[in-house]
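ASSEMBLY PREDICTION REQUEST
Request ID: AP-0331
Submitted by: J.K., bench scientist
Number of chains: two
Total residues: 950
Priority: normal
Notes: Please return the full assembly, not individual chains.
Input sequences:
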Amino acid sequence: MTRELRVVGASVPRDDAIDKVTGAARYTTDLALPGMLHAAVLTSPHASARIVGVDLEAARAVPGVRAVLAGSDLDVRLGLYLRDKRILARDVVRYQGEPVAAVAADTLDAAREACRRIRVEYEELPAVLDPRDAMAAGAPLVHPDLAGYDHMRGVFFPKPGTNIAHHQKIRKGDAPASLAAADVRIEASFYNPPVQHVPMETHASIAQALPEGRVEIWTSSQSPYTVRHLLSVCLGLPHAAIRVHVPYVGGGFGGKAGLGLEPLATVLSRAAGGRPVLVSATREEEFNTMPSRQGLHSTIKIGATRDGRIAALEATYVWDAGAYADYGVNVGRAAAYSGAGPYAIDHCSIDSYVVYTNKVYGTAYRGFGHLEVLWGIERAMDQMAHKLGLDPAEFRRRNLLKEGDTTITGELFTAGHGKPVECLDAVAKAIGWGQRSDAPSAPHKVRGKGIAMLHKAPAMPTYTSCAAVIKLDEDGAADVLVSGVDYGQGTYTVLRQVAAEELGLPIGKVHLTWECDTALTPYDWQTVASRFSYMGGNAVIQAAADCLRQMRAVAAQALGVASETIVCEDEKAFPAAEPGRAIAYKDLALGYTFANGNAIGGPIIGHGRFIATGLTHLDPETGQGRPAQFWTYGAHAVEIEVDTETGEIEILHIATAVDAGKVLNPLSCTGQVIGGVVQGLGSTLLEGFQFDGKGRLLNPSFVDYKIPTAKDLPRRMTPIFLENPQPGGPYGARGVAEHPMISVPSAIGNALADALGIDYTVLPLSPERVLLGIQKREKTP
Amino acid sequence: METASVPSGLTLLEFLRERLYLTGTKEGCGIGECGACTVLLDGKPVTACLVLAVEADGCSVETVEGEATDGQLSVLQRAFVETGAVQCGFCTPGMIMSARGLLRRNSNPSDDEIVEAMAGNLCRCTGYEAILAAVRVASRPPAEMLTGEATRDGRRLLPPGYSGKDGRR
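STATUS: Completed
Returned structure:
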């Protein structure tokens, strides 16, 4: 029996928006602690060099300077999955922009002046900039000590003596033989450049060192507990010695997962005798020092039968990790087990190499490698469809995963996975797929349509868990405590809706604290991977059930009835058969008091928790196993108009369908789709790091690195949600946060091929690149 | 009214945030490219990171903190809340001030005029569509929005389907 939902599924506006439109919302750089110092960082001008000497004396002499540190002062290794990084470079620098020394001073001006006076002597070393070169025998090693680094064993496989930080293999069936025997084959190579997350708030952390090595931190982070855990491991401190607060966060998109500036702020505060220190990245440092999305070189081979069935797929993914592994190794892992697209393929072989280079390092970015691999896969699927003479939508329809198929890691596809084909059909219908486009708006313009599938599962450890606590207030309202971070997605509003639904409270009486605090709010692994509404939602459902159980027990005792007979509704608890004997929540919240003054019960505090279930490590040789708590499938279809004189692409209409399982808040889900699509347009049309021959980043500012503005919107965007429920998801919901960004480039690339008959393989599809493609074709007879 | 004496190199942004503790105005890039620090100087939108505090001598400066009246959100602020124009919120104060600047000089802007006025403010979360809708709604607010209060209780004042669109581009 399905019950009618009151609040879940409604477009509840976000309550945090009230603080944000008034300027009351406090972000990390809005905080000021008594005596707080400001930090500046000196970064490396070289992509690869030995540090011969660092002279800090002149910096120390600048008035107002309280601490000056270089890498030689700090013998600490940091890392998420592989501990390969220093707080400040020690002995060598591995990318241009890497922090080499840092200063904390009374003012930012003094800290910057002191940084300018630091003298560093470098001896330049050969740099390796292309990950394909870095894989070649004899390439300079970015990490000659790779063998000695701690890493997560059994999950990641660094190759000492090479630049390979991780090699993920997927083997299903016999791909080489099936490919050789296939009726039709294609092979194609693709490239995605590294790009930046560009949260409007750059990274910022405040740390205050306390006695006994303890430290208190305020930070713009997606990961309060992961920050605490990694700092605990790296600094050798018990977890309770580190307290991490996360106030409002101005966007993250993966870039604020894991460790950011917290370790540097901590060691500077220690060096400054316990004065709190704010380290805040400049926009240039956000581009050039903080991590980015990895570049990717893909080579994809597909074999198909003449009737349009995929017989085999082989792919090689070479990721440009940059100087440190960070999340990159897990991107290379996750994007490999998703690396053939949402298709039923019996014979599949994927090699995903995460390769060190002397460039700014990569990390998680919305989509976690899926936008990148699906740029190649979904373009290659179109190429195969054309070679077969099949409509690209029809070719996909014949091969999409359906009940009874298995994924490339051997997972059985069930009805509970959702319906990829419904996503395909929905977007095709929305843009009039198969119908002729209207005439272009000018003779030198041409129109085209493209379609692309997307899929992604949360990439997370097999044992990922989180908890929620609900406290009832004196007035019967509820306070929800969690440690996942709402850095813009809207999850907190969704969790309030869930608590209101379960507790029988109006949404206005459910509050959620907007500061995570590892000393006070309950554990959550971290806020990544589109799993917060799913896992946090389940934890809140349990916490609410715990509150109701406690209230029912007290109400039953107060009324002299069995607790099973008590119903909780409309802020009241009452025996099902006697609604007239209701006790208001507010009279149960802190304990029930009888007329004679006797009291029972006590404050109602509910606890709920959730842990990933049924996940396994992947077999190191075959990649077979169960990596995914759930999968979310979707599709984009797009119609574009290309100006053949300027190379500019205008998006006339983009339709995006996601099988959300259940839309918990349509306003927020729509916001995720529109925001994700436009962010995807950035990756498609505008964004990409450019390096010179020595590995120096050429475009670390908004002057040279453009992201979409209000002028760059498609003429029309159509979000479509399907609701094929997810077993185990709260109300049947799946994550949808990252997905709308994935495959936006693929759909537009396919539309461009349709419009021009040119197969573009390199992103971004800038006017220059599009125009050069047109000119090249015109020159080729 | 207070008077302050400031060093000649102090920006208006630094003055607002560090001297007056008006931290609603945000720094997103420090070089006038992102619009997060937009304030109104004598009624016109400027990026406060590129204006020296001394240049504002004798001028009126309006920041996001002045947008609500007696604790009640303005129609523009309500429109941002209700259309879903706010996600992480870091660009929001600058967006509100650019929109206020527009609405002050043109109370009934066309869609193109709204895009033009908002295109100097970067947002990485929302995809802009809801922000443009919020400005449009604020320029043609439904009656419910003129009288209602901020909606912490989850009610939307905005009637279903109301987008303020009147077909003008």
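REVIEWER COMMENTS: The first strand of chain A starts at residue 37 and ends at 43.
SIGN-OFF: pending second reviewer
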